[in-house]
Amino acid sequence: MAKQSRIVAFFLIVLLIGGIIGATTKNITQGINLGLDLRGGFEVLYEVKPAKEGEKLTRKTLLSTVEALEKRVNVLGVSEPNIQIEGNDRIRVQLAGVKDQAKARSILATQAKLTFRDINDKVLMDGADLKAGGASQTFDEQGKPSVALTLKDADKFKSVTEQVLAMKPDNLMVIWLDFEEGKDSYKAEAAKVKPKYLSAASVNQVFTQTDVSIVGNFTAAEAKELANLLNAGALPVELKELYSTSVGAKYGETALQKTIVAGAIGIALVFLFMIAYYRLPGLVAVIMLTLYTYITLVTFHWMHAVLTLPGIAALILGVGIAVDANVITDERFKEELKIGKSVMAAYRAGNKHSFLTILDAHITTLLAAVVLFVYGTSSVKGFATSLIVSLIIGFVTNVGGTRLLLGLLVKSRLFDKKIGYFGVKRRDVISLSKGVEYAPTKFDRIDFVKVGNRFLIFSIVAVVVGIIAVSLFRLNLSIDFSSGTRIDVTSNKTIVASELKADLQKLNIDPEDIVLTGTKNEGAAVRTHGVLSKEEIAGLKDAIKSKYGNEPNVSTVSPTIGKEIARNALISVLIASVGIILYVSFRFRFTYAISAVLALLHDAFFIIMVFSILRLEVDLPFIAAVLTIVGYSINDSIVTFDRNRQLYKEKKKIRSAADLEDIVNMSIRQTLGRSINTVLTVLLPVIALLIFGSESLRNFSLALLIGLVVGTYSSVFVASQIWLILEKNRLKKGRTKREPEPTSDIQV
Fold it and tell me: Which residues pair with 377 in a beta bridge?
């Protein structure tokens, strides 16, 4: 009866999970907000400056500016805008799904300062003279669209019209929007076919009413837009663009489709591996990974979080990281079975001995993710948010949830004699009577200390060569760090670099370099040193769309922001490293912490070295990849060090360097298979992203791939070897455990 009840409970829980996921997933996925890199749209970071000299920026002023920008966004009809204050003088605006980006940019940045002037550009009235909400779209006597205004003071309007009337024959009242002192003038604009001012009306009588009309060459839509803009009010500050990026809707849709396909392939490969290698525990892991993915999406839905392309990559990567908890537990479970323990005893021992290892691995990765969130820009924050959510939910579901389900199966006693269901062959089991504490491995014949000395020398030489290479080649910095403009062009046909360069030069854009992308060169990444203005970007988008069929993505970064991003990237790596040193020192010992951090810095530098030599572009997603490796590559080191620490405690007396070498060899031999499997489950989705994912995530995925492989190598041949060197030094100084000296001779 006990067997049946637990098996029934297992299937009921699985059916309940499947039913909830099947019934609600569609509504949840449809309700998640997609970022502008997936829906199309644009993002701009403004530096806020006082409208007048001598004024000071206050929190109240910034809040008023945000309110004014929100009113302008309402004019555009954009749903769910994201407008945030950053620091003391910056505002970031994200508008996903906006169709006419040039128009949106213009409406956001305009001061919307309405002024009535004479032909000598003297101000007669301004927007402060308008009644609140007093602008509306109407039609003049000839049926042409116009803008009706309601003034506050009829007497003031009477005085103004008297002044203009007295200026005959130059009795014109010129109405301006955003007149720039020292730059604009009526005389200069009057000679143009399309003058900048809104209208220039003759004043042939004195007016005493409060109703005024602006008559110009408006369409009804333009007149309505102007009326709404005037009702929204003038900005209380000036806005200067520091950073901007725009993504075409087609580009975002394609990137989303590719990344989802890549993620599905990567996750499917992880699922197949877990079931094939771990059998029943692998099946339980797949069930909980499915639940983990579902809960993560639900959490994003509840948080009203915006899911970006790097965020989806983090979710996919999170599946690989989440499965690590299962791999560590299942490997420990198999080890206990191999030394002759019963299924129940092996299950309990495996859970007990793996919990702290899993906790340590997750916390160190979480440290790096938090640093990414604090110091990253918007797209990197999206990646960090996804990673943090994934780590927390992954720990809960794949530790608590997996143990619940697997515990039901184990405690049913149905599999007591069927260890093959747990991925263990009967011939590999050692009788419990032999008293073996650790199962033999296929690595037992390898002297990792001896081999490791050579690899450590190789790593030192590689780092020295890498420093020279980076000094000579430098890094191929994207505009994120060097400032300038990046243009991503996609076409339905092959792009010829020389032809694209000529097209850009016609627009007075001199490209620094053009890199063709895609299997058939249907894409191109263009960089320029100059920061394009919003007018230049609008012209560029129109020209490229007309010639190549798709609107290009355009990103601009000012020199100020470029320097800040570079500084924050360095600070991020340093803070993450210090945090990991402190945590590992607390959980283990300082020698473990130093060894682990030197190994992870080795991994991070190795990625940088490869990108420098291959001239691959270093951008913000690259920094996210490096910091992810900083957090994740220590996982393997912690898995190895956890066993190392256990063996160290079991050796009550450390007599010589040979004892330390024995600890290193045993810890690596007993954990290497586990380390390979944990990194493999992360590599599978990363490789899928690299091959099938969006072009914009290609370098990000490659950096992760390099870091993961090098991280596994360094945990064996760098971290452990450095720890051995440090501990040998402590042994010489008498700080390790030695056999106590006899206090007297023994006489018989």
Answer: none
Q: Residue 39: which residues within 8 A CB-CB, separation 6 or more? A: 96, 97, 249, 252, 253
Residue partners of 292: CB distance under 8 A and separation at least 6: 318, 319, 322, 390, 393, 394, 397, 398, 401
User: How far is the C-alpha of 647 from the C-alpha of 353, rounded, in Å?
Assistant: 13
Tell me the two tokens of residue 335: 């080890």
**In what helix (H) or strand (E) does residue 193 lie, and over which residues does it extend?**
none
Taking the CB of residue 270, how many other CB atoms lie within 10 A of it?
Answer: 25
Q: Residue 91 and residue 83: Cα distance in Å, rounded?
A: 7
Q: Please tell me whether residue 176 adopts helix, strand or coil conformation.
A: strand
> Angle at Cα 365 formed by Cα 363 and Cα 370, nearest 5°?
90
Name the DSSP letter for residue 53.
T
SS (H, E, C) 257-288: HHHHHHHHHHHHHHHHHHHHHHCHHHHHHHHH
For the chain, what's the residue count?
748
- Report the C-alpha dihedral over residues 12, 13, 18, 21, rounded to 10 degrees: 140
The CA–CA distances, whole Å, from 232 to 65, 213, 319, 388 equal: 11, 18, 46, 39
Return all residues near 373 (Cβ < 8 A) that are at least 6 apart: 381, 384, 385, 388
Give the position of tokens 């040979």: 658
Q: In the sheet where 136-139 sits, what is the strand order?
A: 136-139, 145-150, 211-215
Question: Can you say whether the dihedral through the CA atoms of 341, 343, 345, 348 is positive or negative?
Answer: positive
Q: Which string of b and e fits 488-512 if b means at least 16 CB within 10 Å? A: bbbbeeebeeeebbebbeeeebebe
Asked if 85 and 91 touch (Cβ cutoff 8 Å), the reply is yes
Residue type (1 letter), 523? G
The span from the CA of 347 to the CA of 158, in Å, is 92
The three state secondary structure string of 638-687 is: HHHHHHHHHHHHHCCCCCCHHHHHHHHHHHHHHHHHHHHHHHHHHHHHHH
Distance, CA of 76 to CA of 107 (rounded, Å):
8
Evaluate the CA torsion angle 273, 675, 703, 576 in order and state its sign: positive
Strand order in the sheet with 199-202: 123-126, 114-117, 172-177, 199-202
Is the N-terminal amide bond of 281 cis, ω within 30° of 0?
Answer: no
Contact 639, 368 (CB under 8 A): no
DSSP classification of residue 549: S
Mean pLDDT by 10 residues, the chain (748 residues): 80 93 86 77 84 78 83 69 84 80 73 81 83 80 81 86 87 83 87 82 81 76 76 74 79 82 90 91 92 89 79 78 84 86 89 84 83 75 82 86 90 88 85 71 89 92 92 84 85 89 90 84 86 83 88 84 76 80 81 87 90 87 79 77 85 83 91 86 89 85 90 90 91 64 36
Instruction: Please count the CA atoms within 13 angstroms of the CA of 515 that sit on its side-chain side.
Output: 14
